[in-house]
Write a structure and sequence with these properties.
heterotetramer, A: 145 residues, alpha+beta, C: alpha/beta, Aspartate Aminotransferase, domain 1, Aspartate Aminotransferase, domain 2, 7-stranded mixed beta sheet, 4-stranded antiparallel beta sheet, 15 strands, binds pyridoxal-5'-phosphate
Amino acid sequence: MSELDNLYREVIMDHYKSPRNKGLVEDAEYKLFRIKNPSCGDDITIQTKVENGIVTDCRQIGHGCSISMASASVLTEIMIGKTLEEAKNIADNYLNMVSNKEFDTELDLEEAAVFSGVRQFPARIKCASIAWVAFKDTIKGDSNE
Amino acid sequence: MSELDNLYREVIMDHYKSPRNKGLVEDAEYKLFRIKNPSCGDDITIQTKVENGIVTDCRQIGHGCSISMASASVLTEIMIGKTLEEAKNIADNYLNMVSNKEFDTELDLEEAAVFSGVRQFPARIKCASIAWVAFKDTIKGDSNE
Amino acid sequence: MMKNPYSKDFPQLNNGSVYLDTAATSLKPNSVIEAVNHYNRDLSSNIHRGMYEAAVETTELYESTRETVAKFLHAKTDEIIYTRGTTSSLNLVAYAYGLENLKAGDEIIVSELEHHSSFLPWQFVAKKTGAILKFVELNEEGRITVEAFKKVLSTKTKVVALTYVSNVMGYITPMKEIISLSHQYNAICVVDAAQAVQHIEIDVTALDCDFLAFSGHKMLGPTGIGILYGKQKLLNIMEPFEYGGDMNDDVNKDISEWKTGPQKFEAGTMPIASVIGLQKAIEYIENIGLSTISEYIDKLQRYALAQLKQIEGVKIYNPTSETGIITFNIETVPSHDAISFLAEKNIAIRAGQHCAKLICDWLGIYSCLRASIYIYNSYTDVDIFIEGIKEAVAYFKKLGF
Amino acid sequence: MMKNPYSKDFPQLNNGSVYLDTAATSLKPNSVIEAVNHYNRDLSSNIHRGMYEAAVETTELYESTRETVAKFLHAKTDEIIYTRGTTSSLNLVAYAYGLENLKAGDEIIVSELEHHSSFLPWQFVAKKTGAILKFVELNEEGRITVEAFKKVLSTKTKVVALTYVSNVMGYITPMKEIISLSHQYNAICVVDAAQAVQHIEIDVTALDCDFLAFSGHKMLGPTGIGILYGKQKLLNIMEPFEYGGDMNDDVNKDISEWKTGPQKFEAGTMPIASVIGLQKAIEYIENIGLSTISEYIDKLQRYALAQLKQIEGVKIYNPTSETGIITFNIETVPSHDAISFLAEKNIAIRAGQHCAKLICDWLGIYSCLRASIYIYNSYTDVDIFIEGIKEAVAYFKKLGF
Ligand SMILES: Cc1ncc(COP(=O)(O)O)c(C=O)c1O
Ligand SMILES: Cc1ncc(COP(=O)(O)O)c(C=O)c1O
């Protein structure tokens, strides 16, 4: 069971049980991106505010498995305060890490590093990615709702 | 090669080279049925006149392989003069014979009996059947052109 | 505990996993595997147009499968169309019958029990034609009942498209009564039998359905082959769906003529290897007998349900299911977390919406776990499954779920 | 005479027949046979929705095949759609692009070289929309030329649907120039590559075609799987073709949302075993290399043609064919009589109209014989074939044909 224990790390459980930055705000300056994964029933929305090239707020709402929920929560905490460049770089490296592709091991992924256990569970890669993909769309300036 | 020789019997070659009752007539009392087999390029039309329950004329035209052409020619010769019942009975038994199904071996198929060699060539059953199927449609009273 | 007499025919069971995912796709017996192999290895050739030995044998196997399917369904050979699967079969009906015969204001009866493949083609037809979708109200168990059906049936009903067995709830729809009522209103009935054909005997003549669809891969057969049964008189008046090689009698620059019978709907090279494999799947089922199969599954399912009900924290959505499908959740645990645990123990069940979101909405859940039992499963499989669920409950509880 | 180094990979060749019918369907190498077998025997499970090992491996093989196909064609992975075969691929384009984007008076360019699967979908679209079919005039050899194409191309042209290699004549269409000209007129190009993909290298990016279709079973792969390549920007604006499981992002009673990318067009369970087999077929072809393949075929074909030309009473319709296809007749002998003779000698060639009646009309014949050569054929095969034709000529002459 050690692989599973490696997936359900304490930090992940903490974010799952006490999600940060949860709930959306009504503010046209936020970009919002929603992604659904109908095969599992995941449905996550990320809302991001960027001012002068800095992510000043990042919010999340949705439902899904613990991995997708926790990864959304961790995402928002990490991203607030980052420059767009830093944010994109961290997101790209995180997405490569969870999907077992090459990534910059020097880069500090902060709490997101605990999602490395996902690599052992190919079917959960999508769960760990969905919020981060949506986030990348928001900082590209896309909104889909 | 004996199976092939059994297919290309003299009677068949004779009908192929000198087809009987060839060419259609313009007469609304004839029923006409045309069948095409696009995979081989066969195209056969049978025209039948029935008076008082007797096949008084049967004509054929078309193109195709020697087996389909000869079987159309043999058909017309046999059918002229037969009652509808006899005609249908012979046609049914002929079609069963060439497709290797049960048929009445007591029944006199006349010259059509030479097509028994077709049974060894499953892919030629259609060639030997096409005119006879069209004939059956004409005596049912169907026309398709 | 007695040994399962069929499991030896399914080589995949040797890999040590407990396979409880037949509703997604079934395992294949050796006879099916070998039939596909035989075609690929010894016979590879196209049908209908070759005269050499391999082509002749292929054509014979291909056409005799049609007879096997026809007999299995009590249909005429000319009423059996090969397709890519249930989804393609149902789209064929939606396009070639639905789009051509429905108009604004006509009604199509569907239900929240439908698989997306039975629902979305009709949502599309409704959008294109202006016809209206009517939902049979499900009873408190989530079943389609004759009474509820009567409430939506009217002279406006033109098509009734319902699932014979739900792939989430496992319930058997009272199809015979529904069809008979529908015909009183001149509506045609399209039956999604993807989860029925491997469980209950289907006699399309007695049932009197107009169309009926299923897939090979859920009934011990290969992927890539499905069946559409259609009443001859309907097939005769329909235009083709796909156009191409082999479905025509004559092709000209300006106008072409179509074949009659099922061939009108079989354009181009069909999935020959899978057709040939399907014959063996049906023979395998027939050799055991559908009543033996369903009795066995029923016993195993009751055995599983009895234990599952005892586990605290497990919610079962279909305790009266009659076809080997058990749908449930561990109450505080999202289904995807739960199956990760089971997958680690080599227990193959499925989590998600099962391509049937409407019934998840109806149940008020985002997703669920589904275990599905078939003839090759054993009591030991059930025991391992139950033990796995118990451990999962404890594991996630300890984690704080 | 030197031994063919590839024939050992094709178990069907052990049956002693001379297989010259690859244009109908190809033989399969052991790697393809075994890949299908592996799925059927060891992996049987559905994709995308399972978490257990077999489901994960299946999903990986299924999606990595898409990458293999994309690389093979120089396309993006998201531009590769799985279908049942070329015919389904071309119907998808006709329905999901053609019906939606053409209107009365628009023109569709086709040719008399088209296989029915490349012609009939557009005859259907023309009939439904009022668009007009324009035929490229073939040159005296029966080829599509750029000059003749220019004569039918106009601002009215909206779709150009042409075969890359004719399955009867074996000619290669000058597709690149045609596509470039078409785009100057904003017409989209649909390429039927069913007979091209196993012979010539296809780079869809360089070719700049809008859609391109082919079948697995004619390129060493399994039956039941085809590919549609489509330019991403076109796929994005298209509505789905078939509706069902797995092609949607959200399903509701009133309205549903579709997936993006190829998944939008892959409704329901796909032919998983055949997809997995296709990967091995492409790898087999890539390992040899298409230039090696075409050079070898070319040599063998010239060897065959040189001898066939010597036989009195044989008429060859495509003496300049460049892709292993030789089409001919024994002049006084209907083609079906001729192949019965060859079949008796275990020589597998095909007779008929080859699902391409328009070119038979153009040639002024009802049917013809077609021998098609591929990489696993040997000089000995050609010798036996030539000897067979000689004997057939003598046999039928003696009979009085
Ligand atoms: C040129 C061409 N186009 C299309 C097709 C149709 O392919 P399929 O029958 O695999 O759909 C064929 C094969 O018969 C072909 O040769
Ligand atoms: C009830 C039901 N209908 C339709 C389908 C669709 O079948 P397929 O995916 O084989 O096309 C399924 C299977 O997923 C099903 O369970």
